[in-house]
Amino acid sequence: MPFCTNCGSSVDPHATFCHQCGTRQPRTIPQYTDFLAGLSDHAACVLCYIPVFGVIPAIIFLASHKYRGNHRVRFDAFQALYLFLAWLLVHSAAPALLFASFPGSGIEHAILGILKIVLFVCWIYLLVKAARNEQVKLPIIGDLAARSTTEQL
Ligand SMILES: [Zn+2]
After folding, report:
1. Ligand 1 centroid to 11 CA: how many Å?
2. CA of residue 28 to ligand 1 center, whole Å
3. Which of 12, 89, 98, 139 has the smallest number of Cβ neighbours within 10 A?
4. How does the average pLDDT of the chain come out, rounded?
């Protein structure tokens, strides 16, 4: 049971005003059956671009009913997903190269290292842009995401 922010008497969780003093109460979190219902499109896009871990909300959004017709969120979720796959590819290529490369050649590792940094910078860039409510389409990955978005609708 919440308490009034002004007089401290107990108020109904769904009440907008205190029944004792009439002070407006801060909005309590509504009881959503679908936890995505309270999430704005803006917040959803930002969540997708959390480096590495953003793939989890991205997959949830792509699978959810709420965003089935939402072009904007679906595009960002797909773009985040493909960015993660690119990251995974670079990540899994590193140990394979360790065995394949000649002893002493560090060029492949340097290239992979640079690729990882580039992908990470893309993530941060997209995260910042999403936070500012701007949509960015990356080359290649963005095209793939756009194609996936239209195909699914
Ligand atoms: Zn009160």
Report:
1. 8
2. 15
3. 139
4. 86
